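Below is how a single chain appears once it has passed through the pipeline. First comes the sequence as given, then the structure the pipeline wrote out for it. We keep one example in the README because the format questions we get most often are answered faster by looking than by reading.
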Amino acid sequence: MVNIDTIIFDVDGTLFQTDVYIYGLLNEILAEMELPSVEKEKVIKNIGIPSQAFYEELFGHYGEEMVKKIRARKNELYFDCIRKKGLLYKGVVELLDQLCEKGFKLGICSNGRFEYIDFLLKTFDLEKYFCVVKTYEENSSKTKMINEIKNELKVEELIFVGDRIIDFKAASNNGCVSIGMTYGYGGEEISYADYSAEDVEQLNALIEKICGTFAKVIKRKIVSDVYKK
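Resulting structure:
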């Protein structure tokens, strides 16, 4: 038996309903610039990948300078937009309360930049729950960030909760357990997670089950290298 006492969370599509604000904001910016709107499905498909790749995927066909302008305008507006429209998924605060009460160490591992994640944690009063926060930097990857968390917290095993294949790959590469949230943005990528949950209530029950019965030897899925890291 392995005593797992550490749970690491992705943010976009796991704790935070990113599409609630980002889709509308991007189309407001495109309208300002007299550019065609972007499809919601295309935005959702790319939520969770590194920031630069996100904007290049959506707007790269306009050229590098226009991508920079769109990102710069978004950076001017998104703090206020999140304050007005931002939403956590239902039950997230209650889940974090319960996990802390049970003695779990909690952390964040996100492809969002520090300024963005720090703002979210402060806006929704979530800072108090997390003992470690890892965010995107140049030449970083979630695989590297999870490895750093393991070293810093001195743990061999942890559970990584996310919604995209890059989350499940990072967990697998570090010999850790992954749980995919089906309400997130990964779609069929959820099949690469070790386990899946439909909501935070189911996630809470699953964490308790895993940490009570988890065997050290587990057959890992081989996750394809969808995103170059």
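The two ends are 33 Å apart (CA to CA).

See the next section for the split statistics.
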